[in-house]
Amino acid sequence: MPTGxxxxxxxxxxxxxxxxxxxxxxxxxxxxxxxxxxxxxxxxFVGMGPSLFSFQKGDTKYSLKLFPIGGACxxxxxxxxxxxxxxxxxxxxxxxxxxxxxxxxxAGPLFNFLLAYLMxxxxxxxxxxxxxxxxxVNEGSKAEEAGLRAGxxxxxxxxxxxxxxGEVTLISQLNTKGESLTVTYRRDGQENTVVIDPAYxxxxxxxxxxxxxxxxxxxxxxxxxxxxxxxxxxxxxATIQSLKMLVTGQLSRDDVxxxxxxxxxxxxxxxxxxxxxxxxxxxxxxxxxxxxxxNLGIMNLLPLPALDGGRLxxxxxxxxxxxPIPPEKEGMVHLAGMVALMLLMVLVFFNDITxxx
Length: 357
Description:
Its EC number is 3.4.24.-. The protein is of the alpha+beta class. The protein contains ten helices and twelve strands.
């Protein structure tokens, strides 16, 4: 096989490994809580479309499907059809207490965040972190006018507590209108607050404070647990901000990627990291998996039909009103959501094709 073909094959394999780890973590969350609450799992599958292979163990069928675009944990009676026919057993999903069902659905996104935190622990323990310490202040910049200097540690921006250099960069990049930034920094044990009006750069089309932030910290054990949480939180905030920008039109469809786009990203990262050895490749793949796991957790919590967040909304309504929404009505809502989700996946797939090929 030509060298280029080998590289692409490796990238596809790396993507599939990341995909399986992230999706299986999500579905395992549903699975383990369902078992804990006495709910029968009819099928546990990864991927979508026709099954490549499957096997039965106990009450559950385990399947691997053709297309790497998701997965599911199917519970007995969750579609409402068995309830209408009176064919549900005592282990059916609708027969479980409402909070047991809520916990079972919520466990999927929760396990994604737990996986992300575990991966952040690995990255922080091996690589350390980039702090919010100012490394340099550009001469004549707005930051210099405000009195900032190298060695200052930024602790808040616009009232938001920050811990990482990436947070400083993110807040600066999101300030697309050049609004004033209220910056709190620590110097010699004292905290000071200044207001900086970023200057516009014609070349890049962005507003800059005029600082370089990002000191290095090799974390001890307590700091590793602490900064792993900050790292996961940063990825979550970046994901939420990206969703807001997508909804408000600040991001276009070209900024959205599906499986093909993710393979391309993995390929580019692998190509950059392989020269530094297998460990560097592994750490970069863990970083991608961390981001995807956080993304999957947040996306599934959106209160949209067919997603976990949509199901949680129905369960909350049931808990408040003391009785469930009629299964056929809930089923119609989720079916419509699933159709819309499938159409979106198709559009993203073709967008990837036109974008990269």
